[in-house]
Amino acid sequence: MSVSLVACDVGLKRIGLALYVGGVILPLEPIVRTSRQQASRALQTLLTHKQPAKLLVGLPHARYSDTRQRVLHFVSLLDFTPVIFVDEEDTSAQALERTWHLPRAKRQNARKNGLLDSLSACAILERFLKQA
Fold first, then answer.
1. Rounded Cα gap, residues 13 and 80, in angstroms
2. What is the pLDDT of residues 49-107, one digit of tens each?
3. C-alpha–C-alpha distance, residues 35 and 13, integer Å
4. Is the dihedral of CA 92, 76, 7, 29 positive or negative?
5. Who contacts 3 (Cβ-Cβ below 8 Å, separation ≥6)?
6. Contacts 24+ apart (CB under 8 A), 48-53
7. CA pair distance 58, 36, nearest whole angstrom
8. I want to staple 124 with a disulfide (CB 3.0 to 4.6 A). Which of 6, 7, 47, 48 is the partner?
9. Which residue from 131, 112, 19, 8 is spatially nearest to 59, judged by alpha carbons?
């Protein structure tokens, strides 16, 4: 059985998700947030279903202390270990670069529907795998 990992990019509106399994990174359907509790329950359900070896969470740089605190609080609502925090610097820019091949309207839609958030989670996963 291969090791699986789940990565998430926690945002105020959406939580981007990615899965690593069988040596492949796949973006998953993002979680649209209506509240912290709803979003944490949805992520908890995904973790229970996928049973990854680790949860990787993008953590903003210390200069973004408010956002960093929100991410840490959100993760504290989960019943899962181990949680590995990964520097998420520039992952949104990397995700945006991955949509340049799309027509303008589809790029805009990727922001609205959460694809960009899940591509950021893919970048978080890639960063972790390069460092591991």
1. 22
2. 999 999 999 998 878 789 899 999 999 999 999 999 999 887 776 766 766 666 676 66
3. 9
4. negative
5. 20, 21, 53
6. 50/4, 50/6, 50/19, 51/4, 52/4, 52/5, 52/6, 52/19, 53/3, 53/4, 53/5
7. 17
8. 7
9. 8
3-state secondary structure string, 6-52?
EEEEECCCEEEEEEEECCEEEEEEEEECCCHHHHHHHHHHHHHHHCC
Token pair listed for 110: 């990727």
104-119 tens-digit pLDDT: 766 666 566 657 889 9
Q: How buried is 67 (Cβ within 10 angstroms: 0-12 exposed, 13-18 middle, 19+ buried)? A: middle
Burial (CB count <10 Å: 0-12, 13-18, 19+), residue 48: exposed
Q: Which helix (H) or strand (E) holds 84?
A: strand 83-87
C-alpha–C-alpha distance, residues 21 and 23, integer Å: 5
Structural tokens at position 109 = 């839609």
C-alpha 130/C-alpha 25 separation (Å) is 13
